[in-house]
Amino acid sequence: MRFSKGRSFLFRVPEGEELLEFVNGFAKRHNVLIGTVSGIGSLRSPKIGYFDEAAGGYKVNELRGLYELVSLSGNISLKNGEPFAHIHVALGGPDGSLHGGHLVEGEVLVAEVFIQELLGELLERKPQGKGLALWEAKE
Amino acid sequence: MRFSKGRSFLFRVPEGEELLEFVNGFAKRHNVLIGTVSGIGSLRSPKIGYFDEAAGGYKVNELRGLYELVSLSGNISLKNGEPFAHIHVALGGPDGSLHGGHLVEGEVLVAEVFIQELLGELLERKPQGKGLALWEAKE
Amino acid sequence: MRFSKGRSFLFRVPEGEELLEFVNGFAKRHNVLIGTVSGIGSLRSPKIGYFDEAAGGYKVNELRGLYELVSLSGNISLKNGEPFAHIHVALGGPDGSLHGGHLVEGEVLVAEVFIQELLGELLERKPQGKGLALWEAKE
C-alpha cells in the first residue's frame, strides 16, 4: 500500500514512563493513525515476547536490570479502531550481548523516538485465527 | 549523495513468501530503483551471512525454527541493471537471544515492511575485487 | 517536537574511516543540525558502550575482528553548539551471535548510511546530572 508523508516527530520520552504505553498514547494524542516508529535509548526491566506458532501466542521473557535500547523498529496502524504501535526491540546487557523480540513492556531511562506519520487508506489489524492480528496482505 | 523523496510503501508480505526475493520483486514491480527498507515480523528457518574478508565471501549460518524478526534494515539500489535489496536482520529465538547478519533467505510467517523510495542520480553496485559489490564512496 | 523534512542522504563511507567520527563530520560539512541516521555494513574492532546508571557513565566493551553491522540507529542534534550523532549498533560475529550497544568507535570496512535531515526548532543535548546529555523531554 502506498502512502504520502505526514508529520515527523522526534522527541525524548520522560524517564519512568512505560515505553509502549507512551508511544500508543502519543499516537492517540496526536492522532497518528498510520506511521513508522524507530528509536534508541536505555530501558529498565524490559519484557519481550516471542511468538510461539504452536501455542498461538507470545512467550514472554522478562529481563532484569538496565539494557541499552539498541534498536526499536515498528509501525503504527489501527486495532479495534484506535492507533496501535507494533514494536520490536534489540536490547544490550552490560557485557554487550543482545536479547530482543516483540516489545511487551519496558520502563524508560532514556528513549529518543522518531515517528513518521503516513497518510492514506487506513491499515487495520484483524485477528487471523493464529493468535496474530494482521493487516490484509496487499501491495 | 543527496536524494529527494519518492513514494512510501508500508505493507505486509504474505505468509510463505521468501522475504528477500519478495522485496526484490516488489522493487521491480513498482520500479523502485533507490530506497531504504525497514521492517519487523517473524521468519522461519532464516539463513544469515557473515562477510569473511579473508575468504572474500559470505559464511552462511542456517537457523532452525521460527525467529522474531527484531530488525530489518537496508537499502535498494541497482546491481546488474536491476533493483537489488541489501538487507541485514536481527533475529530473536524463543529465549530472546539474538542472532543476525546479512539476510540470505527467510520464509515469512509475518513481515511488515516499509520502503521509502529515493529519487536522484542512480546508485549502482559494482564488484570491488574483495567479494563485495559496492557503490562508489562519495558524499 | 514536530519537524518538517529536509534533505535525504544515502552514501557509502569509505573503507578505513572511523564511523562515528565520519558521521559527525558529514553532519558538520553538510550542516545537518537535526536528523535521523540508519545504516548497515561491516565494522572492524568496534567498541560499544553500556550505560551504567550506578557509575554514571559508559562501560566500554571492545570487540575484536570483523563484525556485520546488523543495525545502526540514531539521531543527530546539537551538543555544545555542534551537530552530534547519537548512534546505537547491533553487530554480528562469524557464528551469527549479536553484540551491541552505544557506538563508541568502529573502523569501516563497509558502511551504507542514510541520513534524513529534519527542520524545525533546534534540539540540544544538555547534561542531566547522571552522566547523560539529553534533550528536554517534550512532545
Can you walk through the features of this model?
Three copies of one chain form a homotrimer. By secondary structure, chain A is mainly β. Helices cover 9% and strands 64% of the residues of chain A. Chain A has one helix and eight strands, in the order βαβββββββ. The first copy, chain A, has one helix at residues 19-30, and strands at 2-13, 35-52, 57-62, 66-79, 82-92, 98-119, 124-127, 133-134. In chain A, strands 1, 2, 3, 4, 5, 6, 7 and 8 form an eight-stranded mixed beta sheet that branches. In chain A, strand 7 and strand 8 (133-134) form a beta hairpin. The longest helix of chain A is centred in the N-terminal third of the chain and has 12 residues, at 19-30. Chain A is globular. The N and C termini of chain A lie close together (5 Å). The model of chain A has no long low-confidence stretch (mean pLDDT 97). Chains in contact: A-B, A-C, B-C. Chain A binds chain B through residues 1-5, 34, 36, 38, 48-53, 59, 61, 63, 71, 73-75, 86-90, 97-102, 118, 123, 132, 134-139, and chain B through 5, 7-15, 26, 29-30, 38-40, 42, 66, 68-73, 90, 92-98, 109-110, 112, 114. Strand 1 (2-13) of chain B pairs antiparallel with strand 1 (2-13) of chain C.
Counted by DSSP, the helix tally of chain A is: 1
Question: Residue ranges of chain A: pLDDT <50 for 5 or more in a row?
Answer: none
Mean pLDDT of chain A equals 97
Biggest sheet descriptor of chain A: 8 strands, mixed
Oligomer: homotrimer
- What is the percent of helical residues of chain A? under 10%
Distance between the termini of chain A: 5 Å
- Secondary structural class of chain A: mainly beta
Biggest interface between chains = A-B, 41 and 36 residues
Secondary-structure element sequence of chain A?
EHEEEEEEE
From the alpha carbons, calculate the radius of gyration of chain A and give it in angstroms.
15 Å
- The portion of residues forming beta strands of chain A comes to over 45%
What is the number of beta strands of chain A? 8
Shape of chain A: globular
